Amino acid sequence: MSPEHRRLGLAALLALGAATLPFWAADQYQLHLATLIAAYWVLIGGLNLVVGYAGQLSIGHVGLLSIGAYGFAILAGKAGLHPALAVAASGALCGIAGLLLGLPSLRLPGFYFAMATMAVALIVGEVVLAQGELTGGGVGLPVPGFPAPFDSPAGFYWLTAAAAAAVTWLTWNVARRMQGRGLIAIRDSVVTAQAVGVPVLGAKLRAFVFSGVCAGVGGSLFAALQSYITPDTFHFELSLFFFVCIIIGGRGGILGPFLGVVVLTALPELVSPLAKLGNFFYGLLLLAVVLVVPEGIGRVFELVAARLKPRPVESVPVQPDLPRLARALRSNR
Amino acid sequence: MSPAAAAAVQPGASLRAVAVTRRFGGITALDGVSLELRPGEVHGLIGPNGSGKTTLLNLLSGYYEPSEGAIALGNEPLERAPVQRRARLGIGRTFQKPRLLPTLTVLENTMLGAWPHARAGFVETAFGLPRAAREDQAARSRATELLHGVGLGHALARRANLLEHAEQRFLEIARALAARPRFVLLDEPAGGLSTDEIDHLGGILGTLREAGIGVLLVEHHTDFVFRVCDRVTALDLGRMIREGTPAEVRHDPEVIRVYLGA
Questions:
Q1: Which residues of B touch A174 (CB under 8 A)?
Q2: For chain B, which residues make up each domain, given as ranges?
Q3: Which end of chain A, C or N, has fewer beta carbons within 10 A?
Q4: Which residue of A has its CA nearest to B82?
Q5: Residues whose CB is less than 8 angstroms from the CB of residue B83 and which lie 6 or more positions away in sequence, other chains included
Q6: Of the candidate ranges A124-128, B10-14, B112-116, the one whose mean pLDDT is the lowest
């Protein structure tokens, strides 16, 4: 079996397990955790194109999550909009926010871009506090749930899981096509990206706006799951958490970051000794991954397999086939 | 070639630098140099280190703007055109130090070169509309042929970071060819290659010439340059000292004095 098939098989298994989760989850709390993971993944799946593929260090996505969450709470709650419409509106709002944030900041190199996204996250938090009339200020805001059949924990889980699956499908489509290669070129060598014709800023901006829309939808689902949001819900560590999930999972893949979210969300909750460690656990895991498997846990199996069964790369002298080259150059010019 | 970009340039047009000067601060790296690269011609660019060869290549491919002078493809002025526009117009290049995407396979690295021909945008691709898959399939089969052509058929699925040096150089050429270029600008493609590999490179350059592609060859292996090139330009200290056939340049006293040695 090729790694490709193995990965697809693993993905299918995960999908099956996720779809049937309400039937085998031990208790309501596990179902809640799974819903939380799915809501996070809606955001992280989109962010993955920005961080994992295009290599842009956005550490401010909690700001977009917060805009999405408050957008949903205000539109579906105070304004009485249908929740489905409110989700769509929050997604659009965060897409626009992503555009406004990305347009100036994506021109900045590496760390300066990271600082800009962090600044925006902090500003959003302050604005939420200051606009008490609209957001409830420090007291917070109740968030309405979804109508039947999504009003039960299982129903809402399936809704969130469906959104997570949709985001996965969208990013997978981008990742495996020319658009995805263009993003990877921006990450690994901007000079190469330019040389082959990739519009660097435009490609980054598209991925960033997409991640904004995902953050808006994810924020809406996240808020509905919490049922009550305050500025403290959107602490800056959450932003780092999103970023760290992708780094621990591995850049340039989808399964890896997904495993990253699952591990980082579920493990501390399910294994109580780890919960006591709190952030220490994150730090330890991050350190372990960066030192031992810098390519991310998404590739651990592959790397272990390669270690167990080393296939020496045999050196074959480069031997051009000039008639074939000539044919290839002539074809459909 | 994308139809809109191709329509702007007549077939048979040459890529020209006309009296280009490029200054970096107070240093004049290139001083009033002209060069015409014709389709189906292998044009060598030689000179000592610091003579301005790579600067000229960067001016032609768009990484630098000239301080003075003009760059044009046919009647199309290019001196302010970004690198990406020149790529769409059919100007490809390789790098002195190969710049590959280490985590992608050899095949995917080559497919990236077909970017100018991919019309499916981000949203269209995300929603899985058929055009993106179709274009990918076309890029894949063409890249496969090109890779077999340049001698990397054995390494299609290998990650680029596992390639040997010569393989990296040939992969860069395949990637440039995946764009169906009119011109390829090669920055020291023979650097670090064995004698056999240099011969292979020569064969590839000959095939490009026959396919009507203009090749600019920046190179230090002067024997190789004089063997494979139709015309040669010699630079020294940012100035052109001689342009002509390999025989003319090789026996030019000035070229011998500053570069070839007695």
A1: 122, 125-126
A2: 3-260
A3: N
A4: A194
A5: A194, A195, A197, B61, B62, B63
A6: B10-14
ipTM of the complex: 0.93
Residues in chain B: 262
Taking contacts as CB-CB distances below 8 angstroms, the residues of chain A near B151 are 318-321
Going by C-alpha positions, the residue among B39, B50, B33 that lies closest to residue B9 is B39
User: How many whole angstroms separate alpha carbon B227 and alpha carbon B246?
Assistant: 8
Gap between the Cα atoms of B60 and B58, Å rounded: 5
Taking an 8 Å cut-off on Cβ atoms, the answer to whether A185 and B149 are in contact is no
CB atoms within 10 A of CB A174: 24
Q: Distance, in angstroms, between B252 CA and closest chain A CA?
A: 34
- Other CB atoms closer than 10 Å to residue A79's CB: what's the count? 11
- What is the reported pLDDT for B2? 47
Q: Which of B65, B76, B87, B51 is nearest to B21 (CA)?
A: B65
Q: Does domain B3-260 have CATH number 3.40.50.150?
A: no
Residue B171's closest CA among B150, B192, B187? B150
Smallest CA–CA separation between A28 and chain B, in Å? 34
CA dihedral sign, ordered B222, B224, B227, B230: negative
pTM of the complete model: 0.92
Q: Is the pLDDT of residue A25 over 90?
A: no
Mean pLDDT value of segment B198-220:
96
In whole angstroms, give the CA distance from residue A288 to residue B166. 36
- Whether residue A70 contacts residue A229, with contact meaning beta carbons closer than 8 Å, is answered with yes
Q: What would the DSSP string read from start to end of A5-51? A: HHHHHHHHHHHHHHHTHHHH-SSHHHHHHHHHHHHHHHHHHHHHIII
B115 vs A198: CB contact, 8 Å cut-off? yes
Segment 82-121 of chain B within 8 Å of chain A by CB: 82-84, 87-88, 92-93, 95, 99-104, 108, 111-116, 118, 120-121
- Residue numbers in B near A52 (CB within 8 A): none
Q: Per-residue confidence at B7, pLDDT binned at 50, 70, 90?
A: low
- On average, the pLDDT of chain A sits at 90
What counts of helices (H) and strands (E) characterise chain B? 11, 10
B155 to A319: CB separation less than 8 angstroms, yes or no? no
* Residues in chain A closer than 8 A to B118 (CB atoms): 178-179
Interface probe for B, chosen from A325, A330, A331, A333 (most Cβ of B below 10 Å), is A325
DSSP H/E element including A97: helix A83-105
Selected for mutation to probe chain A from B2, B101, B106, B200 (highest A CB count within 10 Å) is: B101
Average pLDDT, chain B: 93
Worst-scoring range by mean pLDDT, A21-25, A40-44, A65-69, A224-228? A21-25
In this model, does residue A333 exceed pLDDT 60? no
The HSE-up count of residue B33 (CA atoms within 13 Å, CB side) is: 30
The answer to whether the CB atoms of B120 and A329 lie below 8 A apart is no
Lowest mean pLDDT, pick from A2-16, A79-93, B62-76, B214-228: A2-16
B179 contact residues in A (CB cutoff 8 A): 196-197
Percentage with pLDDT > 90 across chain B = 92
The residues facing B42 across adjacent strands are: B215
CA A259, CA A244: separation in Å to the nearest integer? 12
